[in-house]
Amino acid sequence: MDEKKERSLSRIREELAMYEPVVELLKLEPGEMGHLQLPIVENIVEQHKGTIECVEEGKTFLASQFTNPVEILTAMDVHWYFHIQQLFAASGSGGGLHTDEDLEGADKLNIPRDCCTLIRLGHYLQVAGLYPIPTAYLSITEPCDSIAGWHAAFMHHPDWRNIPVFAPDPPYHTDERAIDYYARQMREMVDFITEHTGQTLDMDRLRETVEETNKGYALWMEYNEIRRSSPTPHSYTLPLSCFFQINTLGAGDPKKTLWYKDIVADAERRVKENKPEFPNQKIRVFWYDIQPFYFGEIVSWLEQEWGGVIAMDMVSYCPYELIDTSTEDSMFQGLAKRAFQHGPMVHQGRGLAENVIYDITRIVKDYKIDCVIFPGHMGHKDMAASSSIMRETCRELGVPFLYIGLDVADHRYTTADEIKDRISQFFTAMGLG
Amino acid sequence: MSKYDEHIENVDKYLRGRQVREFNCPPSVDDLKKDLPVQVGPRSNPGIILRSDMFAELGNPAEGSSGFIVWTEDTSLVRDGRITLIGPDIPDLEGASVPFGQVLMIAGEKLDTEVQERIEEYQHISDYLEGYMVRSSSQSIWGRVSKDSVAKGFNMEILGKALMINMKSNVPEIEAMEVVFVTSNKDDVKQLGEIAVEVDDVRKDIIKAVWKERGYDLDCDLDCNSCESKVTCDDIRDIIRAQKEKGTAEIGGSEG
After folding, report:
1. Does the ipTM surpass 0.90?
2. Which of A203, A329, A350, B177 is deepest in the core (most CB within 10 A)?
3. Over 70: is that where the pLDDT of B236 sits?
């Protein structure tokens, strides 16, 4: 294998080396939560092994983005890796080995500093040759303007400019015409994949896959309802894994549905027995944005220092609908809605701003929220534009609101200590602690 | 004439010719609270009903759900305290998952567009009623009733009363309130959904206008005719048209 290909796999190999022993450890010593944590880690390991195999053996594979329907990829039996996941992983999620190296590399790219750091890192990983180069790429052009810009810049890199790319064009509105338009795009995506991988779509296999992911989504929504319980059953790791488990490789695999069954069963048991994973909960927080790479540090501190619990978060609260599998059209329409309307950041960031008012109002009441924290990631200009609407809504509901202003990827922008300090001052001032 | 008067009339038309059961409740909140078999008020339930504790499910998306609120300044259009039920009542639904429709009609001479968001807050009963939960992550009304509450006497009349208590206690401008529930079949709920779509258009316009008054734009003006980039888009369309005529244009959003 040439040096370039080897480098493109280097971070994946590092992650694999880190996670494989974790799998073994969890099998040997599962503890109370091991049966729920093991499938998450195994999923990452399987995904990485598949990507390595494709690159090493010259097999066809895709790179894809978080909005594209995974059900189609599973039903077409094509290997793929999730581009943004790769970004988080390669950059050292949780503050890994390469965080500072990558951030400094991104700084040297001459991209304006006010551009979203996730996007700047994305470019850096490309320039540094750290993305495996796929047979074809399924891109993304929503929810924000920066992503549309990223797509254009990304496809001009010499290593990628000859990679066939399909970039779905999301409409602004959400009416029937818009759904039909995007459903047609999804059909074109199928044709595109066939053209470049030779894999075809079997509609019965798609139906089977969608029916299985429907079960997963239904259980995830059930789990979200259980989080309304006070105390809430789990700490932050499991709720955040719900999105990734269903949107990564193996979507439609009954093994994944089983994971959702287990997480719901564990949450129900904890509610009945009043045995939350994290006890002594005092402050119920709604975290209204994606989570920083260094979230583990902040949430552990929040729980230990203040008894604060993330009762609901933006990645979890999405208006997913189960897809009607009765006809081909209904399936593609359902996949289209899931792709361009329902996903995290998409539902909130692309609008309408009315979603912000509705979500905050429902969540504050239903989840007995004591305060809303809007981290205000510097890249989320779309959401920053709604921050006054958030504040106004919270004021009307009588719930305290904190706008931090941070960078989810760059701890140098606002350090974890500064964030903790802001939260502490806020809790104290509002009499929550 | 109020913005929703036409829709209130449409609900009346919808009810005509259907087999209904009617319950007449007292107008005052104090009287509504008398002799209730379950608790009504903030924190009356812990927020959730687990699957194992569920007696019946209302409005699962697989069955169908439709819910909306309409309001008017004309108090003669709303029969205060009236609850109308089309279909079976809760005690007859053990273990069942049925389609669900919920219409709240509200009247008060002092009602205006500013009230829209406040009344919407109270249509999802949240933790206000013992033994009843509306799921949070669904955009439609998808409810659960607990076994314990049914054993105590919970039924649609109690749900209607709880909605009236919740609404009248929190929105003092309300002078009259009427409730319609549908549990009969998918078709009945679907027909109600046709009114709901029209109501939702009016609702969205009201909310946008209210926030506009406060200085916030919830929507963008994306009308092509008023967009300053129209000339550019027109040029691109011309180029694509010319390419298509030459047979060189690529499909959809694909490149490369």
Report:
1. no
2. B177
3. yes
